[in-house]
Amino acid sequence: MTIRHRAKIPAIPAFPAVAAALLLVGGVAADLAGPQPYMGLPLFSAAPLVACALLSFRAGLLFVVLACLTSVLLDLYLGRPVAALLVDLADVLTTSFLALAVNRILARQGRRLAQARDVAEIAQRAVLPDPPRRAGPVAVAARYVAAHTEARIGGDLYAVQSTPFGVRAIIGDVRGKGLGAVSTVSVLIGAFRVEAESAASPADLADRLDAALARGGTTDDWEDFTTAVLVQISPDGRTAHVCNRGHPPPYLVHGRAVRALEPSSHAVPLGMRLPGTAADGAAPTDVFPLPEGASLLLVTDGVTEARDARGVFYDPCRRLPPGAYAHPRRLVDALVRDVSCWTGGRNQDDMAVLALKRVRAGGG
Fold this sequence. Notes:
The chain is of the alpha+beta class.
């Protein structure tokens, strides 16, 4: 049996429709009570303009018909000559035809913009696929939140991969936006997938990513760099090795406590190695215990540099809602909600969040 769904008639936005209707009413009042004739004619012409600029084509056409009928009926009621009636009607029709043409142009541009946004989103999903939900001894959750819905493509990145050394993960933030940033993201993610299987340590992996950026030609400009944190969780899940290359530190969330895992010494971001120098392995790798049930929360500066109305930066250690998060997805959701609350929904930068929760062997 085939079930047919009745098509819903799209609702007309209230404010533009009310504004266009008020213009028609104002035109009638101006013609009836005005000190001089034809005072309402500009308002009759303005109503279709407002409707066609802000409403659908059908709604705009409806107001075109209403404006023309109102103008003709009012002229007949006031006993104006036929020549004046035709001039008024021609005036309203001319403006209305222009308004309908503008409506079609805006609709065509809107469709093209939507297609471009969809293509950009598909490209970013291809470059930055969702990580696995489970990798070795950790459960995984991630979220990418664009600062502006009009720009769904950016330079934040993350990836998680099981390797012979344990679970390795990266989160980073490429300087810049748009296609150039996405090109750098693709080079980094591709290099991470390959090099994570053989690099001896997170610091060695960072050096190999540096070399991949140099080979990929994405670091010709001294200002083209990527901040990143590389994490390696041991096969038994007990320890986390962290290599920080100029990125906001990860956070250890355990019970009701949230602690920033600050690096023992600071290293330059990826892509800022001086030309002609070799990798020296100087990037520090710090080792932290990872208790059972604890989570590592990795973020980009869209979180740490989010400001409230007073210009105060967001601090996950103080602001993250306390609680035992049964799944890393709940931790990610809680953080994203709290950042949105902190900024009043006005995020200043793209935001990537990656959570790795140590679970029992064989646990879900």
